[in-house]
Amino acid sequence: MVAVTPHNEAFMTQHISPNSLKLIDDAPRVMDLDLGDALGFAEPIDVRKLIRRNVEELEDHGEVFAMVAKTSAAGGRPGEEYWLNEPQSLLICMFARTDRAAVVRAEVIRVFMEWRAQRAPKPAPEALAEFPAADGPLNEHLAKIATLRECRLIHGPRAAARLWRRLGLPQVYESQIEELDDGRACLTHLLSARVDANSVRGQPMFTLLDSAINGNDVDQLMCKGFGVAAANIGGNEGFLVANSHPWLTGLYAGTQWADGGWRPSLIKIAGAIPSQRAMFAGRQQRAVFLPVLMIDTFVDRPPVGLPAVA
Q1: For residues 99 and 4, is the Cβ–Cβ distance under 8 A?
Q2: Which pairs count as long-range contacts for 7-13, CB under 8 Å and 24+ apart, including other chains?
Q3: Within 13 Å and on the Cβ side, how many CA atoms surround 208?
Q4: Strands (E), the chain
Q5: How large is the average pLDDT for residues 159-166?
Q6: How is residue 27 annotated by DSSP?
Q7: Which residues, including other chains, have CB under 8 Å from residue 138's CB and lie 6 or more apart?
C-alpha cells in the first residue's frame, strides 16, 4: 500500500509545469518524482514502485526512459529515475488512485498542451506590400508586370489576380490600390495630353514619347521641351518626367497634382525610380524614371473618353 499525504491544488502546480518537462527522444517527458509529489505520495520516490509494477503496460505507449538518479547529500547508492511521456503519465495517475489523481490527470494534459504551444512555430507578421526601390531587382519585377498585363488583356482581371498570387507578388491592400490608382491617373493625365510643337500638332503625348523611345532624335528633343524624355537606366528602357517644368506646371494646374504634386504621385507606380538627373531645355533637373511598360499600355490600349489638354 502506497502512503499518501494531502496536497492542495495550488501546491501541486508548483511541481508540474511546462518548464519542468524535458525533451527526450523528440517527446516531452515529466520526471517521476514531480509526478509522485503532485499525486500526494507521502514519499514521492514510491511512485517508482508503481512504475516498475506496470512497466509492461507503460511500454505499450513508448519506451519508459530510466536514468541514473543523482545521489542525495547523505550519499548512498544511486537509483534510477524515470521520465514519462504524456500517456504514460496519465496511466500512472490512474494506477495511483489517490484523492488527487483526477486533478493531476487534468493538470498533466494542460501542462503538455502548454509545452507544445510554447514551441509551436509562430506565423510571421503579415507585411505590407513593398514595391521595388531604385536599387531593387527591377528587371525581374518588370517581367512579372508584363506577364500580368498580357494575362489581363487576354483572360481578364480575375485571371490576372490569380496569376499575381502564383508569381509570389506581395498582397496589396486597399490603401495601396488607391495610391497606385492615383499614380496611374496622374500619368494618364500626362500621356493623354495633346501637344502642339512645330509640325507636330494635336497628337497625344504618349505617341510622341513612344517615337522618342524608339530612337527618333527629333521627337526626343521635342519631348524635352515638355519636361519628359526617353531614357535608359541600368539597362531598363523607359522615360523621365521632370520634377519641375513650366509646361508640366501648366498641364497639372487646377488638378490634384498641381504645384509639383505630380512627382509624389508618379513615384507610387511600380518600377518608378525617383531622383534621376537629366537635361531639360539646357538645365539639369531631377526627374522620375518610369518603365517603358507604361508607354506600351497606352500604345496598345489608348485611353478612351479622356479630355484633351492643349
Answers
A1: yes
A2: 7/37, 7/38, 7/40, 7/100, 9/103, 12/37, 12/38, 12/40, 12/100, 12/103, 12/104, 12/107, 13/107
A3: 28
A4: 22-24, 27-31, 65-68, 80-84, 194-197, 200-204, 228-233, 236-242, 273-280, 283-291
A5: 73
A6: E
A7: 132, 234, 236, 271, 273, 291
Q: DSSP state, 172?
A: -
In this structure, what C-alpha cell is assigned to residue 165?
Answer: 498570387
Interatomic CA distance for residues 6 and 42, integer angstroms = 9
Give, rounded to a whole angstrom, the gap between the first and last alpha carbons of the chain: 104
Supply 190's cell numbers: 500626362
Query: 98-132: per-residue pLDDT in tens?
Result: 888 889 988 998 899 888 888 877 665 544 444 44
Say whether pLDDT at 241 is over 70. Answer: yes
Q: Which 3 state secondary structure label does DSSP give 65?
A: strand
* Tens-digit pLDDT profile for residues 18-45: 888 999 888 899 999 999 999 988 888 9
State the Cα torsion 33-39-44-45 to the nearest 10°: -70
Euclidean distance between CA atoms 159 and 156, whole angstroms: 6
As a whole number of angstroms, the distance between CA 289 and CA 242 comes to 9
Rounded to whole angstroms, the Cα distance separating 124 from 32 reads: 37
Nearest one of 115, 119, 96, 106 to 37, comparing CA atoms? 96
DSSP string, 199-224: TEEEEEHHHHHHHHHTT-HHHHHHHH
Note the pTM of the prediction, 2 decimals: 0.43
